[in-house]
UniProtKB/TrEMBL annotation:
KW Repeat (keyword) present: yes
Pfam families: LRR_6 (PF13516), NACHT (PF05729)
InterPro entries tied to this protein: Leu-rich_rpt (IPR001611), LRR_dom_sf (IPR032675), MHC_II_transact (IPR008095), NACHT_NTPase (IPR007111), P-loop_NTPase (IPR027417)
Stated name of the protein: NACHT domain-containing protein
Composition-biased stretches (Basic residues): 88-98
Gene Ontology molecular function terms on file: ATP binding
Residues covered by region (Disordered): 55-115, 211-251
Composition bias, Polar residues: 211-221
Biological-process GO terms, alphabetical: positive regulation of MHC class I biosynthetic process; positive regulation of MHC class II biosynthetic process; positive regulation of transcription by RNA polymerase II
Domain NACHT: residue ranges: 337-475
Matches recorded under Gene3D superfamilies: P-loop containing nucleotide triphosphate hydrolases (3.40.50.300), Ribonuclease Inhibitor (3.80.10.10)
Amino acid sequence: MELLHEIAVNEDPIALDPQLLELIPESLLQDLISCDFPTDLDLDALCAELKEDHDQGEAAECPAPASTESEKEKRPRRKRPAGERAPRKVPRLKRRKTAPLCTESPHLKDKSHVSDVSPPLLPQLVHVPLTIATALNSASLLPSSGAPALQIIQTINHLSPTVINSLVPVGPTYVLVSPQSVRPVPQLVPLSPADGAVAPAELSRTIIPMSSLSDSTSRSQPPSPVTPISPTKDKTTQEDSPPTTPQCPVIPERVEDYIQQLKSHLRETCSLMQGGLKMDSHYIDTQLVQRKLVIRTGKNANKCLEKELVVLLDSERKKATVDRSHVFQNCGPKPKRLITVLGKAGTGKSTLIQRLALDWAAGSLPQFQFVFLVNCKVLNLTSPNYSFKTLLFGLSTTPGCDEAVSEAVFKHVLSNPDKVLLVFDSFDDIGDLEGLLQSFATSVTDSGYSVRQLFSGLFQKKILSGCTLLIASRPKDVLNQLLRKVDSILELCSFSPKDVELYTSNYFADASKQESVLRKIQSQKYIFSLCSNPLLCQFTCFLMEHQDSDGYTLPSTLTDLCQRVLDQHLELTAKEQGSKQDITELCNLAWEGFKTYSSLLSQDQEIFKELLDCGINCEILTSHTVCEESGKSQVTYFASLFMQNLLGALLLVQSKDVNDRMLVAQTVLHHRKRKVLGEWQDVLQRFVIGSLYQKATPHCCGIPQNSSDAQAKRKAVEAHLKNLNPGELIPSRLLELFHCIYEASNAKLAKLLVKNLPDILSFCGAHLTMTDVYVVWHLLQHAKGLKRTFSIDMQDTCVPLSGLKELVALDCVTSFRAPTMDTIDLWEDLHRSSDELSLKNAIEKFTIDPFKASQVGHIENLVLLVQIHREKKLPMSDAEAALEDGIPAVRHLHKLDYELGQQNGPGAFHKLTGILPALQSLQHLDLENNKIGDREAEELAGVLHSLSSLKMLNLSQNCIGDAGVEKLAQALSAASSLQSLSLYGNLIADSGAENLASVLPAMKSLLDLDVKYNKFTDVGAKKLSAALKSSPSMKSLQMWNNCIPLGVFDHLRLQDPRIRAL
């Protein structure tokens, strides 16, 4: 190694890699040092030597016979002037007789050049000036037996003598490349650009390593590919060397000890569920559903490629389930770094996160060395007092440690971000997302950031890039604006009926108690549907635990359930403490938190310790220890959304400070809202109406209530509901109106609602659970006395099959719309149960008019429906008597909108044309903006004759040219009922216009023809104008485009006023 200091590289410093230099044989270093390079080098001789090397390089590519000694002697030499000192001769070894491999050799075929390897993959390079002879023929370059070979790459290009004479005389430069295995990167071959096109930046950027002055000059020359020369005689390639496996970084002992402490701490803190239940014995492993985002398509889609969450059918949800162990598993080439878990309040998102933490502590998630759990409920999200280190070791669920340990662990975390999992639970408490992504943390060491800024930096990969981020939030709240940026979207499923049965069995140890409780829960349909929510299922079991299950009557509303749970907790706490605590102050705190959409109790508020202890003992409140830079502090927050909103509703109903107008303005449904508050607003509205009409006065709240005030508030609510028009509400608010009326348990309000409902009840886009289905089913029972009938739209609602079955069976429901596959599943279920009458009613009530296809699956389902209609049997059964006349929904389909867009439209068009002949009643066919070309137009022309009822055909904004119009024109002449034809925005030229003009007089029923913005000129326009004179029944012809001279168009309009520009 002492020899390294004697190497001079053009007087430039050398970046030495010790690992590389240890591989260079010492004999080679001796040869390098012994070479004495003259400063007065003969440039002509250098030029000749360079040309000789260049010629031999070309000979290596296409081998030719070596030159003889006589030919070498004929080479002219420059005479040295008198007085000029002869240059010192550099000893040269014999050249290797074996020629380098040809580029066409199979050893080098399809292999990328060394120069193509990206800089991050290359090892350190050592630049040493060598003569060509020494570089190519030095025996020192040969490796020892079994050792990998060094590669030498010449970094100088062949230069012209003019350029060489203008340079400072220096020796050529070679690069010694480390023999460590480098994965080759495929060479990117650019396509030939169009005239005037600019090459992309990634194709024009060239990265050249630092080398000699001659290299700097040669950068203006076009770079020539460099063929690597193997210095070994046995031609050993890199592929022959054994593959190297990446080694995991060594974990320091101090860090390893902390990891074990963290696992022990998580096992201790995550072992209990809400209510003090043990995770091992009471946890129910509910399924997760993989959700997807798609770009909106169709003529009404946003041009900015806005993404939306795909609504899954009930059958699709069963196929898309994901096990807990596969949450972090990569299903595609892109790793899952940003994962979102969506779930309504009480569905168990926090419990799932605890379970994942326990899995990691047990060694089930070996890809992570660290798991940091951050509960957004307990954080001051806007205070700019935190650093990233504080977030990890102070605000998350971690064990305490000294500064030295935390600093060592923090450095290890920063150097291994791919081994870190950060979980943000209760993300909906982060508040409004406006400006969240605009203000973000950029440094892992600076302080003065808020939690929002730290999260934004992590989410946008500005800090700790490469870590895995898991976010848990409610589906209707703030995270919806960020869904398009995440890698995986998971929805946490509710309890199935089997899960409810299993949870009840785990809750009660006595087998007889289990049976009696489960039997009573199943007998009360509404409570049984509420038990699909894990938290409400725990509430129900808690009530049954402290009551006589035989004589106890279960509550019938959500308000009554939560009220009884609260009363039971207060009663148990009063027995322990000897006195009953007044929780009026907690009601005030709950309402203040609702106004800011926060569950956290402000530390500035003075709260008596007895009241806090009472709230914690009653499971209304929960405490958490936070370690900040200023020290440890205890924070308190409401344990659940249900209890916080119940206390806030009790304050609004019973407080004298809240009059009737304030109550209606704050809580009751309105046509318009400035903000979508999601479950915050929904649950509060139900509790306010339920508490207002509750027969028994709540025992828990100590607020004195005046009967006259309550009566005035009830009258104000009734007057508001009477003036409310349910037909003007969007589906989600219409569903909430049903829930509010149900919570009142008032027959007068129920009849008022049913009386004001529109004939078409649309819940399209609102997620219908079994609880929602029961509420709608229960209230529509009043329709019989009012002689009302309804048509229900349940598309894009994810309605369960059992719920669909109940709503379809209602006598007041005369027709329904639902996903086609779910409806077919319903028919098959009724067929298996041999309920022929219900099957016949379900087939007759089903309707698909108007049918809008925005996904390929919609067309595929319609194809299946038409197949059942034609064959008169269900897919998995024999002929069915109920299908003797086919499917009325297919026979009565009048309008079909094909909105698959330009990406999917052409591919699925043949499926559409295959079923069009079966749609005998079709009157309106909209095919706008689907990139339909001449081939698709020819397919459509082949089936147009079967659409005898077609009145409107829209082919606007497609790619139909003259060939397609020629085929269409032949079929349009036989369209006896067609009244409106739109072809605007296509590629129709004069020939196509002439074909249209030839059949125009034969289309007796046609009233309007639109061919604006096509490619025909005044020739085609005159043909159409002449044909219009032979069509007296037509009302309008729109044919303006830029190819028609304005004067000609105005002249045609003067001749026939039916010709219009727009």
